[in-house]
Amino acid sequence: MKRILTALLVLCMARSLFACGGTANSGDYKIAMVTDYGDITDQSFNQTTWEAVVKFGQDNNVPTKYYKPVANDTASRVASVELAIADGYNVIVMPGYAFGGTIAEVSGKYPDVKFIALDVAAGDLLEAAVALKGGTYDYNPDNWNLNDYVHMDNVYCAIYQEELSGYMAGYAAVKMGYTKLGFLGGMAVPAVIRFGFGYVQGVDAAAKELGVNVEMKYGYGNQFYGDADITAVMDTWYAAGTEIVFACGGGIYTSAAEAAKKVNGKIIGVDTDQSGVIDGLYGKGMTVTSAMKGLYPTTVDTLTDIIVKGKWDEYKGKIETLGLVSGDDASLNYVQIPETTQFSDKFSKEDYAAMVKKMFDGTIKVSNDIANNPATTNVKVEWLGNIK
Q1: Residue 303 belongs to what domain range?
Q2: pLDDT digits (tens, 9 = 90+) for 234-244
């Protein structure tokens, strides 16, 4: 009997996946994250995703490493992915729409590598893939069969309903008493537009409920970082009476925060709870709330299912839209505002919970249309386009 048990133990240890107990052998995997055009200290996509990768790796004894492309272009991102694969990494995590072209080029070349892309939609993949095959993309993914252009058998993409957390943030701000608002987006890419248009809808809904009129300046910096030129524009916004700006797009928040600091203005963060970094650098209490999407839980949950639970077959080939999964516990949702939100009698945690419940059950409807500016009744929006 002892020999039989020993033999079974050896057999279990030799297996690569689900060895005799339903647990994957994490030793079969090495996880690499490739940054898009920022660094792992960007307080946004790259940093949040990398921290999730590191946490998963530490908890499950899986090697992790990040690679930063030498330039902001597809060729450099492809080079980083291929370097990671050459180094033996077989799960590649890529945060951001900019990886559409990278996936189109590499997924078919490395069928044994698992590619996990966050915030990469069908349109991002098709725009690059159609061009690679000499075609002209019409920017309507419904007109194309993605699998004819991109090898998706080893790819999983997660995208988010940014319009929902944008709505939450805008609704909360007006309920808190702000009536002169701004939206500073990075580049006018679909995810940023969804955040912004959801924000406008939330602002308008709250203004209607309160019976107040609201003003908003709405523009894009045309880049994902702040600089002196954008800070100068933000100075004019705050000087003209803007009370709070939703800074939406990587490091572009620095320009809004630098301007806000001069006049005790307020900021709404994006993607993650940015109160820690913004308040720490620019002044306590500056960040009223943040329109968050669950990059961290998406990364950890996906890696857990794929590596620990062996559920890759349930993920591969899919582009999954993540949003609300609970009407009763807002913390479970992939889009939300954080616990650090400056709740008060005007907008309490209970008010937030009630709003989420209505969004979940469909009483509150938020449009995800990015082709047309949202119609408003109580908000006068100054549409500024690219301010730089």
Answers
A1: 19-160+296-322
A2: 999 999 999 99
